[in-house]
């Protein structure tokens, strides 16, 4: 996966323009005069679910545009993944928004943070895959073929796909997407305890399946 | 993968009213209202240094004293501001001038002692009491800081923890200067200021575990 950006080296995320609009360093332009967003968030802080729903639907396209522009080369699913993570973060820290201040810089600071996390995770995964591939190649070079390695990948996918839905969802969110329990609970509607139990059972099943094969 | 509209619907349905985070300035005042009485109590219990009246008229005492207090105030503000998304970055530089004045005034006194007394005249002894004293006196401001800062967004947890610990330790230093008779510049710089710097740096390293929510 090619990730063509570095947020850490991007201190000036926002650049004010003469016409009062702002643009990110990636070139996305957006207005920072969305008074209705600020009002909806203020209402959401008071518990107005309709205003909150309107706000989240209104900001999602902006989050999507910024993420797509920043994560050049990432798939649409990855972009949507980031959008959902930002929405979860907005939800978790919505009490930090001060309606006396503009809304968009608050929102963009959260998205920048989540994008930074996502990019770091993607690089780490890419490194792990590279290291794993090297080690495997050294160990199995003579014995294994590409077809066999591809079969292993498919076998893991098939095993995960064969798990009960709760276990599959818990593994995907907690292990693959590295969400916190709180975030995964908010996304799935499951309790944190239920997620822990589902993860434990899913891992146990996978270990049993592949442990036997390995032994 | 759950689609974004579903995530939005779940988040909107689970939106409870939230207690809005006060501005960083208000939180600094609240923090001082908890920390200053402790410093005052420490002064009453330990007894103010007998020459305090004279010392308060000496620039060599007053300048680092006031600079340390200003560092505590601005570092507390930076700690709170760093956990609010969208806060302008320049707020985080506010502790730098008083901090530089504090270190600079202590360094200048060391240099003047060196010029006046030479190497043999510089007093340097082991005084390990400063670190635990500053840690103990700063404990209540530090605990108050942790409890207050935990409600923010963990955008820069290490920096937030560093500023928070710096604020608490600088306030403890202010209290220590009111009761402790140590005036040798090098001793103050190494043991008292050194304790502040050590506590702030160590706390910064453990910043990730500080926050209640994840952003």
From TrEMBL, chain A:
Q: Which Pfam families match?
A: Sigma70_r2, Sigma70_r4_2
The Gene Ontology biological process terms listed for this entry are: DNA-templated transcription initiation
What Gene Ontology molecular function terms does this protein carry?
Answer: DNA binding; sigma factor activity
RNA polymerase sigma-70 region domain location: 57-125
Q: Which family does it belong to?
A: Belongs to the sigma-70 factor family. ECF subfamily.
Task: Name the NCBIfam families for this protein.
Answer: sigma70-ECF
Q: What is this protein called?
A: RNA polymerase sigma Q factor
Automatic annotation (TrEMBL), chain B:
Source organism, top-level taxon: Bacteria
Keyword flag Transmembrane helix: yes
Keywords for the protein's UniProt record, in alphabetical order? Membrane, Transmembrane, Transmembrane helix
Q: Name one Pfam family in it.
A: NrsF
Transmembrane domains' residue ranges: 28-48, 60-78, 90-106, 126-147, 159-179, 185-206
Asked if the record carries the keyword Transmembrane, the reply is yes
Name by which UniProt lists this protein = DUF1109 domain-containing protein
Which source organism does the UniProt entry give?
Answer: Candidatus Defluviicoccus seviourii
